Amino acid sequence: MARHLSRRWLNPQAVPRGFLRLYTMTLLSRGPETGYSIIQKIEERTDGAWRPGPGTMYPTLKGLVSDGLVKVARGATAGRKEYVMTTEGHRALREMREKIAGLGRKERVITRLFSDILPPPVFVPLVLNRYREGAQQLREKMSEIPLPERVVYLKELKLFMETQVGWVDSQLPMQRAAVRDGGLRSRRRY
Description:
190 residues; 2 domains; elongated; mainly alpha; Arc Repressor Mutant, subunit A
């Protein structure tokens, strides 16, 4: 590994500061959870790429309780505490989500920069995988949107997809012809 690349950059466990707190609150907004169940859900959702340890999870929960955003549920035993969101926690989560929703421009800029950094044979599969995952997440979330808005979003999605299919359909004949004619002999290597 090159010396100038830090281990943290390449570590899949590295997540943005404060993200565990935000995700913990998101899970608790859906219902009571134990620290252990939160750890398990994060590990499942990330296919094992991220598993916060107890030494991270429990201090996070303790901090949320201390800040009045989360409380220990009634009837919890010493060995098994269930946590629930407070009214203040729901308000704080709503505010955090609003801030995150405003980060779309930054994400687009970072994606453009990654397109410059990564060679095409790396960038294109990366984006295709992101589309696949994004499509699955979109389907899951779409049903939670109220019906009049959902119809608007579905129409917008249909138009976007038709545009993409049109572009792919226009590219395929040219690419097939290039392959047939041996036009790929001058492939660049990265």
